[in-house]
Amino acid sequence: MDTNSGFKSTFLWGGATAANQIEGAYDKDGKGMSSADFIEFIPKEERVGDHHMEINSEHIQKILTGEHEGRFPKRDGIDFYNTYKEDIQLLAEMGFKAFRMSIHWSRIFPKGYEQEPNEAGLAFYDAIFDTLLSYDIEPVVTLSHYETPFGLTEKYNGWAGRQVIEHFVHYAETVFKRYKNKVKYWMTFNEINIINISPFTGGGIISDRETNPMEASYQALHHQFVASSLATKKLKSIIPNAKMGCMLARMIHYPNTCNPEDVLKAQQDNQMNLLYTDVQSLGEYPTYYKKFLSDNELTLNITDSDLAIIKQYPVDYISFSYYMSLLSSSSPEGNITQGNLMNSLKNPYLESSDWGWQIDPTGLRVVLNELWDRYKKPLFIVENGLGAKDIVEDGQIHDNYRIEYLKKHISEAKRAVEDGVDLMGYLAWGPIDLVSMSTSEMTKRYGFIYVDQDDYGNGSKKRIKKDSFNWYKNIISTNGSDL
Fold first, then answer.
1. Residue 249 CB contacts under 8 Å (≥ 6 apart), including other chains
2. Residues 128, 179: contact at Cβ < 8 Å?
3. Cβ distance 266 to 366 under 8 Å?
């Protein structure tokens, strides 16, 4: 351990992105459509809260026929498909040790269910990995980051169909074999819990095609659990020294008051958020989940062989996103604030971002200690950051608010390491400005690098270093000791 900072000398500093939010080139070199290509930008004045709409069959059909002409920013991203060399050079200038990215499944298998992969797609990621490795940057690769091939939605209604397990495992095996000498850190599903909040985002599921949408989303979740374990099995046979992680959107709940009913509600909310890591790390369904299924009259098709696979192939490490905490109340009344796909009662002790997300650095330390105590597996912060409105003044962006946010969160991560937590690394979300997942806008910026592009795709796409660029560069070079 580095006694100056608390962080290990091998600590993985860097940033995180998703293919659908940066690449663009949605129809180039054989790529097929994915769920992300149907997420529309809705201007703020027309939006309900901070959430994108859930897709229905009629709307999909209108998009496919051209009857509905919307703007779909994730089809264009920030043109990383063509600028990756220059962008990675900027990340290397900051001293990145790791870069989290996803492989767009439909770039490898355009419809998701082909037997033979698309060579142009495979070659594209070869080029990215080679570029990263030339700067000694470790690729951290997510297999499925809200990018279900639309062909699987058409054929099986996405992950609601058990057949998708086989296609995902084939895809995973294909990329494991191709990149076995280039990628050591993998994850199966990004924020796997989102499938039960936004089924189309998390699993390519069009809910109105299901007679019981809630049951379908939890059945789809089970399919993803099985697929994750089978992919882990494949990884261990193809790249024995590689590590597989799960990835959770950690939404820690505090009781709104010391009323025991609020404490109980917070415990229940936290259990349902940790269900996903419980299964993927401990290898079995917890008893509280069985009660949840019974209480909601949900009947899932779970076979003994499914359970055996889940038990035999848990993940090696637990990664998660952390942006905010939430409040739980047995009788929720009061001011509501926005959040990462979830709303919450407003916490009077916390400040909020421009988008209403409650800023809670101490909560990160709580989460790290809680996850370490619960699982005793290495932890990895793979998303954390501040979405804010940046202003360009004389060609510069003075984002001290972002620096303060990150400084406070990294300080709490450092304290958690001093508490005894085994932390692998810290990857700031969106190190280069990208298209927002939840709102498909560019106005909500996270990066150390500004991209000259607005919500409607206008702009030069020029990259500009923000003040936070050199600040984070210093954090990395001092291994977090100079906060």
1. 191, 193, 194, 320, 321, 340, 341
2. no
3. no
Query: What's the pLDDT tens digit per position in 270-305?
Result: 999 999 999 999 999 999 999 999 999 999 999 999
Backbone angles phi, psi at 94, to 5 degrees: -75, -15
Rounded to two decimals, what is the model's pTM? 0.95
Q: Is residue 370 annotated as part of the catalytic site, yes or no? A: no
DSSP string across 323-375: ---EEE-SS--S-EE--SS--EE--TTSEE-TT-PEE-HHHHHHHHHHHHHHH
Structure tokens at 130: 């080679």
In the set 23, 138, 147, 191, the catalytic residue is 191
Residue type, 257: T
C-alpha to C-alpha distance for 130 and 140, rounded to whole angstroms: 13
One of 138, 383, 412, 441 is an active-site residue; which one?
383
Q: Which residues are paired to 412 by β-bridges?
A: none
Q: How far apart are CA 350 and CA 327, in angstroms?
A: 11
Note the pLDDT tens digit of each residue in 360-382.
Answer: 999 999 999 999 999 999 999 99
Active-site residue, 191 included: yes
